[in-house]
Amino acid sequence: MLPVAEAEALILQAVQPLGTEWVELGSAQDRVLGQTLCSPQDFPAQPTSSMDGYALRYEDVQQGIPCELQVIETIPAGKAPTTEVQTGQAVRLYTGSVLPAGADTVVMQEYTQRPSETKVRILKDPQQGEFVRPQGSFARQGDPILEAGQRLRGAELAVLAAIRQAVVPVFRQPRVAILSTGDELVPIQQGPGPGQIVDSNQYGLAALVRAAGGIPVKLGIVPDQPQVLRERMQQALGAADGVISSGGVSVGDFDYVEKLLEELGGKIFIRSVAIKPGKPLTVARFSNPHGPDQLYFGLPGNPASALVTFWRFLRPALLKMGGSLPPYLEVISATSPKDLHADGKREHYLWGKLRLKPDQIQFQPADSHHSGNLINLAGCDALAVLPPGTTQIPAGSPVQVLRLL
Ligand code: AMP
Ligand code: MG
After folding, report:
1. Nearest alpha carbon, ligand 1 atom 23
2. Which atom of ligand 1 sits closest to the CA of residue 248?
3. Ligand 1 centre from 187 Cα, in Å?
4. Same domain, yes or no, for 193 and 104?
5. Are 135 and 44 in contact (CB under 8 A)?
6. Closest ligand 1 atom to 252 CA
7. Which of 137, 170, 181, 270 lies deepest, with the highest CB count within 10 Å?
8. The CATH number of the domain where 152 resides is what?
9. 302 occurs within a structural domain
């Protein structure tokens, strides 16, 4: 049994970011930026006002307040100034208006009066440069402003638009084939007979692949028949950048995955991990003449085992393949209102719900943690981690918690 951290390190070593491709800005949401991008211009491009008010020369208001200046122009946002501000003059402008040459300070309109069409009275002594956004004060031309590996959400898409990046370089999303193995499985359309169960792993795993930035390729159910399974495993390797199967990795008479991986030429580098649930996790590497090596993840079939091993090992691997920057896991410290128990032999992952209190993060464990119990996983957004050697974390003591994103 490999320690969890060692298994993680081996998996992360075995995967590399896929290449990049170009997508239109409108389709770039949640993709991962493929190149660091530099600003093609200064932001703001010219000095601009950050208030509705009057632009003037600071030296002109040094003689004493109130003072009167001549209003020579109105500059709405979006219009270029046509004149230069001379001594004794001011221009009317608005938030976002370009500051005319000669002016260096803006007085907000609340501190002014207009005794006539052509005059403004300044009632308050401004700071020099007040309410002016100097050219390039947000970013200078050539500054790196978006980093390769960043996930593109609202703010990043807005920045891409501002730099007129109509097509965006992004990392390719890993395509992940998903197989469910087991004679007992039936598809959702079919009412299960005695002893049969619906293949739920396929749906759960596909969703987690998508949430990790991948593209699931659902390949359905495969019976525990070595010839059929072998063929479908090979087909899966041909269809994707990586493969996940669930079931068939334990030591039962019908658990063929490990043997077939070897027959197919895979190099198995993980056969079991000191984790609960999820001990039989099996990972093999296939060399691929057309590209980077492919990984095959044989997950245990029990729903909680399959999902927990995905969260702990596959999500980081998929994030790395998809070009995301580390860290690939979010671990925080929380406290549980109940004692947490483990057998101390393996690293235990206990599912539960996080509650953000004003002064602490609370972890509310699910009522029980059976690897076959899918039902009480629903609604959980965190896994408490009890390392090997720890048999109990008393209520109120800090516990490391992996956030499920
Ligand atoms: P296995 O790892 O093949 O020994 O499977 C262990 C148990 O996990 C099985 O007895 C099923 O109850 C359950 N199981 C296996 N595959 C799935 C699946 N695709 N969906 C839901 N449960 C499954
Ligand atoms: Mg099975």
Report:
1. 301
2. 3
3. 13
4. no
5. yes
6. 4
7. 181
8. 3.90.105.10
9. yes
The answer to the question of residue 326 being in a domain is no
CA 18 to CA 153: how far, in whole Å?
21
Q: Alpha-carbon distance 131 to 58, whole Å?
A: 12
Give the residue carrying structure tokens 């999902």. 307
Query: End of a domain among 83, 111, 133?
Result: 133
Residue 140 domain-assigned? no
Atom 17 (ligand 1) nearest CA: 301
Same domain, residue pair 217 and 154 = no
Peptide bond into 66 cis (omega under 30): yes
> Using an 8 Å Cβ cutoff, are 304 and 373 in contact?
yes
Q: What residues make up the domain containing 392? A: 331-403
Would you call 245 helix, strand, or coil by DSSP? Answer: strand
| Cα four-point dihedral sign 93, 95, 98, 103 | positive
pLDDT of residue 302: 97
Place of tokens 């010219």: 46
Ranges under pLDDT 70 in the chain: none
**Last residue within a domain, chosen from 321, 354, 369:** 321
Residue 177: which CATH number?
3.40.980.10
Q: Which ligand is nearest the CA of 224, by number?
A: 2
Against a cut of 0.85, is the pTM above it? yes
Q: What angle do CA 29, 329, 333 make, to 5 degrees?
A: 125
pLDDT in the model for residue 20: 98
Residue 75, domain CATH: 2.170.190.11
pLDDT, position 290: 81
Is 80:64 a contact under the CB 8 Å cutoff? no
Task: Spell out which residues line ligand 1, taking CB within 6 angstroms.
Answer: 180, 182, 184-185, 197, 199-202, 246-248, 250, 252, 300-303
Distance 2 CA to ligand 2 centre (A): 22
Residue 390 to residues 312, 342, 344, 352: CA-CA distances in angstroms?
19, 7, 5, 18
pLDDT of residue 40: 98
DSSP summary character for residue 145: E
Two tokens, residue 336: 């549980």
Domain count, the chain: 4
User: Residue 116: what pLDDT?
Assistant: 97
CA distance 383 to 365: 9
Residues 177 and 266 in one domain: yes
φ, ψ (nearest 5 deg) of residue 377 = -75, -25
DSSP structural state of residue 365: E
For residue 180, give the ligand nearest its CA. Answer: 1
Residues 306 and 397 in one domain: no
Residue 139 lies in a domain: no
